[in-house]
């Protein structure tokens, strides 16, 4: 008999109650694609024709979007390829609450239009009292573009050669700034730039001096750099790009610049990311002098760079709510991590699992060179791919797969984690 006759018709399969429900939840096109793939498996003889519906149901994604949630066990707390800072439960709840219609630009008491994201801006201002005013755009690069457009179009931005960084995916800060119509005035050398170098370059055509924290690399040895305090004495606006979004000093990261200190030292404007050490959603933070922030806020480009209601909700909850996961990971007690690693390894003894000491890092363009003591579960390297396909991402070192627990969710139940690892490992062994 022709194998195609044994494959159920598409309309019959879509009438299956499980697939009909999935079409309502995920969309008809996603379900039809799963059905077509299962039918093709049956035609090739991979599965029996009577199991096509079951195979289609089993292959359906959990969500309509293609993004898959993963467990970050790489030991990189803010892994750019994994979405940087994971949102707190409070932030996720806030996003869900804001998913429908909200009062994002509406005053429910008066029935009139109100300032967009006023609650989020108030929370950010409270979190950084040193700022005269605050504004939020869609990422830190956008914050710099807006500042350059408003303050330095057809004027000069004075910047150290040692701070002309590439920010990822081939995007270079000098090219980004030049695209706004600003002219870059490079001063100093790669390894040494002094306040005197800036002073010689400042003149009537200066829009502002830009101080950039080289957050994804560091230079050691015969080096020198001017401080924000020294630059503030030059008599022109100083914009400090601190990068990682640390709003106040953190003893775990003593060399990481923060917004409060930069403003106290005289920076007129500070730019930062919201999805790094702050632990919130992707956003660009602008904090500083009220007159400058207002100029930026009222510029036409600000409309193109504004954030949506979901970002506003997540950012406010990250600022007002409980400690975000990124901060929990950064400040995690290494003894507790070791205890969890030992429990997890014990659950996975049959898979040659060992609890080992590890070294984690901040990542995401923050605190380069800082090593965070951690603990991990070591498994055979062969498990790296099947675990990765199952949404558990570790790192390979010296021929072993390490699942670093400093970057993994603190509330992840060890038994549940072990079950997921075991299931993925068994699947991989069966290939």
Task: Describe the protein's architecture and organization.
The chain is α/β, with parallel strands linked by helices. The chain has three domains: about 5-55, no CATH class; about 70-80 and about 325-430, Aspartate Aminotransferase, domain 1 (Alpha-Beta Complex), CATH 3.90.1150.110; about 90-320, Aspartate Aminotransferase, domain 2 (3-Layer(aba) Sandwich). Helix content is about 40%, strand content about 15%. The protein contains 18 helices and 17 strands. It has helices at about 10-15, 15-25, 30-45, 50-60, 90-95, 120-125, 140-150, 175-180, 195-200, 230, 260-265, 290-300, 300-305, 310-320, 325-330, 335-345, 385-390, 415-430; strands at about 70, 105, 110-115, 135, 155-160, 165-170, 170, 185, 205-210, 240-245, 270-275, 285-290, 355-360, 370-380, 390-395, 395, 400-405. It has a seven-stranded mixed beta sheet, sandwiched between helices. A hairpin with a 4-residue loop joins strand 2 (about 105) and strand 3. The protein is globular and about 80 Å long. The chain starts with 9 loop residues before the first helix and ends with a helix. The model has no long low-confidence stretch (mean pLDDT about 95).
In a nutshell, what does this entry contain?
The protein has 431 residues and is of the alpha/beta class.
Features:
4-stranded antiparallel β-sheet; Aspartate Aminotransferase, domain 1; 17 strands; Aspartate Aminotransferase, domain 2; 431 residues; alpha/beta
Layout of helices and strands:
Elements: H1 10-14, H2 17-26, H3 28-43, H4 52-58, E1 71-72, H5 89-97, E2 106-107, E3 112-113, H6 118-127, E4 133-137, H7 140-152, E5 156-160, E6 166-168, E7 171-172, H8 173-178, E8 183-187, H9 195-201, E9 206-212, H10 228-232, E10 238-243, H11 259-264, E11 269-273, E12 284-288, H12 290-298, H13 300-304, H14 309-320, H15 325-330, H16 334-347, E13 354-360, E14 372-380, H17 384-389, E15 392-393, E16 395-397, E17 400-404, H18 414-429
Parallel strand pairs: 1-15, 5-8, 5-9, 9-10, 10-11
Antiparallel strand pairs: 2-3, 4-12, 6-7, 11-12, 13-14, 14-17, 16-17
């Amino acid at each position: 008999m022709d194998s195609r006759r044994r494959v159920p018709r598409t309309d019959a399969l879509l009438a299956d109650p499980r697939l009909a429900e999935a079409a309502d939840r995920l969309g008809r096109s996603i379900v039809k694609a799963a059905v077509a793939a299962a039918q093709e498996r049956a035609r090739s003889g991979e599965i029996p024709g009577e199991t096509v519906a079951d195979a289609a149901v089993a292959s359906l994604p959990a969500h309509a979007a293609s993004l898959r949630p993963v467990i970050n066990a790489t030991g990189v707390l803010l892994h750019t390829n994994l979405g940087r800072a994971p949102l707190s439960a409070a932030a996720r709840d806030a996003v869900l609450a804001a998913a429908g219609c909200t009062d994002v630009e509406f005053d429910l008491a008066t029935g009139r239009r109100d300032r967009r994201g006023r609650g989020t801006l108030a929370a950010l201002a409270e979190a950084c009292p040193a700022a005269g005013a605050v504004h939020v755009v869609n990422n830190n690069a956008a914050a710099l573009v807006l500042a350059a457009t408003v303050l330095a179009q057809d004027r000069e931005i004075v910047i150290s050669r040692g701070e002309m960084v590439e920010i990822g995916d081939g995007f270079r800060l000098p090219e980004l700034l030049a695209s706004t119509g600003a002219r870059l005035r490079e001063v100093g050398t790669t390894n040494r730039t002094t306040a005197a170098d800036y002073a010689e370059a400042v003149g009537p055509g200066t829009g502002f001096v830009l101080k950039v924290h080289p957050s994804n690399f560091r230079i050691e040895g015969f080096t020198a750099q001017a401080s924000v305090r020294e630059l503030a004495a030059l008599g022109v606006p100083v914009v400090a790009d601190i990068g990682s979004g640390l709003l106040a000093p953190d003893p775990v990261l003593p060399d990481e610049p923060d917004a409060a200190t930069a403003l106290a030292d005289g920076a007129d404007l500070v730019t930062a990311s919201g999805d790094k050490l702050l632990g919130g959603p992707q956003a660009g933070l602008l904090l500083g002098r009220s007159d400058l922030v207002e100029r930026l806020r009222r510029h036409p480009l600000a409309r193109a760079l504004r954030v949506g209601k979901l970002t506003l909700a997540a950012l406010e909850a990250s600022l007002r709510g409980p400690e975000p996961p990124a901060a929990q990971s950064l400040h995690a007690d290494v003894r507790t991590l070791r205890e969890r690693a030992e429990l997890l390894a014990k659950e996975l003894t049959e898979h040659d699992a060992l609890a080992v000491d590890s070294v984690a890092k901040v990542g995401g363009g923050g605190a380069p060179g800082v090593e965070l003591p951690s603990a991990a579960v070591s498994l055979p390297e062969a498990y790296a791919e099947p675990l990765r396909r199952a949404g558990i991402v570790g790192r390979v070192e010296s021929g072993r797969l390490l699942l670093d627990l400093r970057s993994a969710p603190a509330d992840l139940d060890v038994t549940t984690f072990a079950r997921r690892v075991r299931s993925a490992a068994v699947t991989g062994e069966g290939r």
